Amino acid sequence: MPSQGELSGEEERRRLAELVGRELSRIANAATDQILSEVAGYHESTAPTLRSEVLTHCLDVFEIFVRALDEDDEPQPDRFRVTADQAMRRVTQGISMPDFLRAFRVAQITLWESIRQLTADKPDLRFAAAEAVSAMMKVIEVGTTAAAEAYLEAERFLVADATSAARDLIDDLLAGQQPVTGPRQAALRTAGLSAGSVIVVVAGRVVKFSGERNTLVRVLGKAATTYPHGLFAMRRNEIVGVLPAPIQRGIGGVLRDLSRVTDKAREGGVELALGVSTPLTGLDAAPPGYREAKFALGALHGRPGIQALGELTTFDYLVSRDDPIARQLISPQVREFVEKDLAGDRMYIDTLLAYVEANLNAKAAADALYVHSNTAYYRLERIAERTGKDLRAFNEVLDLLVAIRLLAPA
């Protein structure tokens, strides 16, 4: 029994709960300022409503703490309903889960420091202050678990929802249909697209990933968010994008932004190959743009990277078409030479390609190959003998080059 003038443990807790409750608004504002100052994702965010949202979240969690202290009761996960709403907001604002959880901890530390200050000159509340630690640990334990689960659920929902909406829109555009419903037109505006936009179309595929499909979709979803505007979606086994390409940015700006997408995907263990169309005017140009993007993708021959159709030379474009008639026009002698060297070490093909790159200068080709010039001359003579081609004649060298590109496009 407490002596006269002393408070029982229960009375102490309730008095402290009342004391903290009166100061909740001030403490929550202090915690909000601390979060916005200390946590990088919050500090760097430009979301105009972020401070008021964080303040609401702090107040809600602190009220859970006060209730747990007052009633000497363990907080239950269903009390953190506001946390689920806040998690959804943080995902849409691009704030990471580690930063979301760190903000939660920063708020609790601020609350504890405030309790210490409130009880510094109140020795009769020392027991309650000790009890407050236990209550706070329970709030942190249950609250951080609820926060992590809410964040992951929000992330899964938003990625799936955005992917589904983008896929439906892209399906319409590639079918030559202009979206007419209000929600889809709104989604187009959000993506920075309109009927008369200058666009590029992207066609891609995953060339390296060993994880589960759910993980793949999540990685691709996060990577796509690094692109400033536009639509990205997984359609069966391909990646398709319809992206705005304002004239002032040009194709160079689009390719730089796409590089950030592939870099982000690579961080998640995913290697992408992306083909990019030429800039086209109007959403009704999406179908031919898609065909261009598929062709550019084919020019990568399964290698990771980005290939813009406009960066292919006319020669690359023509030999990449893989015309069966062109294959038939390759002489048996040249075909035998190319196929035999491909099956070996490619020594003669590499020498010929270096010779072409050096503008038919054998000595420069030797330097590029790090071999003696006599070695280069010898190899070129053997090529001429085996193919029946005069390597001093541009047209005959061109025939050989076309044969190599058709038979060994990679």
TrEMBL record:
<protein>
    <recommendedName>
        <fullName>CdaR family transcriptional regulator</fullName>
    </recommendedName>
</protein>
<feature type="domain" description="RsbT co-antagonist protein RsbRD N-terminal">
    <location>
        <begin position="26"/>
        <end position="158"/>
    </location>
</feature>
<comment type="similarity">
    <text>Belongs to the CdaR family.</text>
</comment>
<dbReference type="Pfam" id="PF13556">
    <property type="entry name" value="HTH_30"/>
</dbReference>
<dbReference type="InterPro" id="IPR041522">
    <property type="entry name" value="CdaR_GGDEF"/>
</dbReference>
<dbReference type="InterPro" id="IPR025736">
    <property type="entry name" value="PucR_C-HTH_dom"/>
</dbReference>
<feature type="domain" description="CdaR GGDEF-like">
    <location>
        <begin position="186"/>
        <end position="297"/>
    </location>
</feature>
<dbReference type="Pfam" id="PF17853">
    <property type="entry name" value="GGDEF_2"/>
</dbReference>
<dbReference type="InterPro" id="IPR042070">
    <property type="entry name" value="PucR_C-HTH_sf"/>
</dbReference>
<feature type="domain" description="PucR C-terminal helix-turn-helix">
    <location>
        <begin position="349"/>
        <end position="406"/>
    </location>
</feature>
<dbReference type="InterPro" id="IPR025751">
    <property type="entry name" value="RsbRD_N_dom"/>
</dbReference>
<dbReference type="InterPro" id="IPR051448">
    <property type="entry name" value="CdaR-like_regulators"/>
</dbReference>
<dbReference type="Pfam" id="PF14361">
    <property type="entry name" value="RsbRD_N"/>
</dbReference>
